[in-house]
TrEMBL record:
Signal peptide: 1-21
Record has Signal as a keyword: yes
Solute-binding protein family 3/N-terminal domain sequence ranges: 31-260
SMART domains for this protein: PBPb
Origin organism lineage: Bacteria, Pseudomonadati, Pseudomonadota, Gammaproteobacteria, Pseudomonadales
Protein name per the record: Amino acid ABC transporter substrate-binding protein, PAAT family
Domain of life: Bacteria
Keywords: Signal
The organism of origin for this protein: Pseudomonas rhodesiae
Gene3D superfamilies xrefs: Periplasmic binding protein-like II (3.40.190.10)
Length: 272
């Protein structure tokens, strides 16, 4: 029994402390730079009490860097600058709740570490809106920077117009906060956010919002790396898989009540 137990124990310890080879440039400077847009709780945001970065991605990035044996340098940026920051090598990674899409894969490699989906919600007082088809002919807002406007349009054609109902009127907004503000001002009938954010939103303003149906599609959230940096892709993907296997990843998900978005296996460019 002892001969079997000791190797098994050692293997577990080695797996939990494994360090995968980083590119020399990152290893030499002792830090990895990460772009983040802290406006998407609970994935990425600033604690209102301290104005400091927090959220699932922040915790995951810190744990990842520690496992890799380097510090992480968070660089707050605008959404439009995240991918260009990779291609111009201003940052090493993007870790900010970004959806992995085929279009973005043209310039970036995505390590997929989370799943979510675009979900509609409205004000709780809108008793006439109970299911998704109740939004046919109504105004729905969502960030124009995402793929969601086109997804809402496609869903509307299939479920509203094909049934002889008026289509959803899609309103592009400056972001989720703008859509939510317009919803509160009754300029919109509903808005769309990632399914991972709606429970958090509802917990902040109890009784104010309600989800409408389920997410209309499934999306992978990816950690972005410049396409030619294959060594970094390997190091991070293998480290994240080790964090899944030893339970570190699951503990961070549980902290933010995001277990529903967990992946069991890290994939590369799985988004469509």
């Amino acid at each position: 029994m002892k001969n079997l137990f000791i190797p098994t124990l050692l293997a577990g310890l080695m797996a939990s402390t494994a360090v995968f080879a980083l590119p020399a440039a990152i290893k030499d400077k002792g830090e990895i730079s990460a772009a983040i847009v802290p406006n998407y709780p609970p994935m990425d945001f600033k604690d209102p009490a301290t104005n400091k970065l927090t959220g699932f991605d922040f915790d995951l990035g810190n744990a990842l860097a520690e496992r890799l044996g380097v510090k992480i340098k968070w660089q707050e940026t605008g959404f439009e600058q995240m991918l260009s920051g990779l291609t111009t090598k201003r940052v090493d990674i993007v870790l900010s709740g970004m959806s992995d899409t085929a279009e973005r894969q043209k310039s970036v490699t995505f390590i997929d570490y989370f799943t979510s989906g675009p979900q509609l919600y409205t004000l709780a007082k809108r008793e006439e809106i109970k299911e998704l088809t109740d939004l046919c002919g109504k105004k729905v807002g969502t960030s124009r920077r995402t793929t969601w406007p086109s997804e809402i349009t496609a869903w509307s054609k299939e479920h509203c117009e094909a049934a002889g109902k008026p289509g959803i009127v899609v309103i592009g907004t400056e972001g989720s906060a703008d859509a939510r503000a317009q919803l509160q001002q009754n300029r919109l009938d509903a808005a769309m956010q990632g399914s991972e954010t709606i429970p958090y939103l509802m917990s902040l303003d109890k009784g104010k919002y309600k989800p409408v149906g389920l997410a209309i599609s499934k999306q992978f959230t990816g950690l972005g790396i410049e396409k030619s940096n294959t060594e970094l892709v390997t190091a991070i993907s293998e480290t994240l898989q080790a964090m899944i296997d030893d339970g570190t990843y699951g503990k961070i998900l549980k902290k933010w009540d995001l277990e529903q978005g967990a992946v069991e296996k890290i994939t590369i460019n799985a988004g469509q």
